[in-house]
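User: Fold this, then the next.

Assistant: Folding the first:
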Amino acid sequence: MLRRIPDRNIWLVFGAIFLLGLAYGIAISLTAVFLDARGFTKTDIGLLASCFALGIVLLSLPMDTLIRRFSAKATLVLALVGYATAVGAFPYLPSFAAIAAVRFLDGACSVGIWVSCETILLARSDKDNKAFVTSLYAVSMALGYVLGPLCAPHIVALSSMPAAFLLSCVISLISAVLVLARLDRDLPGMSEAHGKAGAASGAEPSASSASILARIKTACFATFAYGYFQASVVLFLPLYLMAEKGVTRDQTIQIPAYFAVGMLLFTNVFGRIGDRRGHLLLMRVLGTIGTLMILGFVYLDRYDAMCVAVFVAGATLASISPLSLALQGVVTAPRDYSRANSLYNVFYAAGMLLGPPASSAIYQAAGGVAMIYHLAALWAAFVVFTVVFAGDDPAARRSAGERASVPVWNE
């Protein structure tokens, strides 16, 4: 693995994002419980979650400008410090308005971290390893997400809930120090200063946002669908299983673990296959399998069968996200990575923002089965989209022996 990824900067980003995932996991697992203990209603808690998503949506596009102006490294360090400030202040804020502002800052800094990390990884990985690298990036964050909630109850038992948030703050600051001290400066082509120099020497200028979006539309649909699905399932699948399938509360708590295990075991495997066989083709196959697993919740009645379906859904649908990021890295020029990643994260955040209210409206109006069907329909629409725009992946053209209609960068 070290031979396949010789650039130590990539491993530094993996380490930083693992620490961030650990900080996220501790904080996220306690946020709702802490707010409930403070007397906030479930409506208040939902609105605060929307403030987080709104921060992602509104700050995604400006992150491209910040990265071009200050560099991906500087933006990453500032975003990590900003997140540490937000999570450290969170348990001590006195009012709903103050907490809403901090949750908005949390989302803004989070998207800064994601866009910066993704820009660095795509720029430093070659075209034959992009999905391999992005899948390890996803696994690194997921490991933190898994370990954080496991540690959180012990931290609270030994100290207090505010102390757990402060520990999350300290871990984020350690990640920022690691990046500041050890990460190399950006590669040429990742900053605006280089872009101006390139333009002066006759190099092709940066593409417009519309042109970039046309190239990465399948990746954007994939991340929108995953954000929509992820945010909706976390909230409403447990309610559906308890109300209509007779699953106990303790059993529903275990359900996300099967999804996470499926993701952790297969994301990197599918990343390797995607690099060799084509990212979009594999996304289509995984989307099809994942759609069938979602539909399975309508017809499955045994808990063990549901666990298998969740495991397969995690292995397939969660693997689509790093594959879509890798596809975007293949069809976008390195000088445009920061803007492409900003657009990409806008769609992810939009899915997170729209999924819960739409799913709740369908659930309330037509029941849990209709809610499950509409999630399956979303992924089915994505599969159809990948068929219509199969040419967006240059691998599809190369496999047919034709000239690619979409350029492949870093060849």
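Now the next one, as you asked:
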Amino acid sequence: MSKKTAPLLACALLAGGALRAESSDFPLAINLPTAGRMQYWDIGLAFTHRFVTPVKDHGKDVYGLDGYTYPGLGFAFGIKPIKGLNILIYRTADNKTFTFGFQQQILDRDLVRMAFRAERFDEVVPQTTTPFGRVGLTGGTFQLPTEFFLGDSVVLSLVPTYITRTTTTDTILPVPPGATPNTTPNKSGVFNVGVGLRGEITEKFSVVAEYYPRPSKFKNAAPGGLTDGTTYQNGFAAGVSYRTFKHKFTLMGTNTTGTTGNQVLSGDYGGGPRPTSQWSIGFNVIRVF
């Protein structure tokens, strides 16, 4: 290698590393937001798909793949003049929910990064009361996705979340049979903290898991219409991601069919997450332009 070639090659490698460091990262794991960001004027597209029919005992239905599904389509837009700011738009079929908001990255360090996310959600179906609560709601979701980098390949994520309105807001929560009846309406919104874990297996493959705790107010409450002693459940999602050039594919199993912040972290959406054994299949496809 000549003396002139070596400096040029070094500069090219450094430039390539800088470009990778500044590459866009769609701020989504499975259902929880990450603290990543779309750079410059880049656009991110996310297609989500959740099968409703549980895998258990349904081999004749191809383990749920023959059943109903909830697809969703969303975009994240980078805003070049304001570093770390993304505009978010998403629409999913369950209750025809439309969300619009923004996410601003407020911390980006070697071991931790953090963002603030605010969204308005509108359920476009006609407002009515079902056995599990009210649908056709409008509300807001405020989140603080925070990621801790544990070494080179493991990321722990905490997502404190406040949801202003849920399906059981302004209603009296039912209780399991034999329990003391509840006479106080559930007036307030819900605070919850989602937990995520991502671990790289190779440069392209990684495992990802999320946990959606049951809010404390639902600990002794029963989803409407259920009289078998069932109470609201904790939610989870876990799967495998494959990343290739500007694409990320994630296949998971989950006991919640929701995808938005108010759906997976409210604890009571559609009667809440199903029992752990009743998990179903879902997938995400993300493309960065």
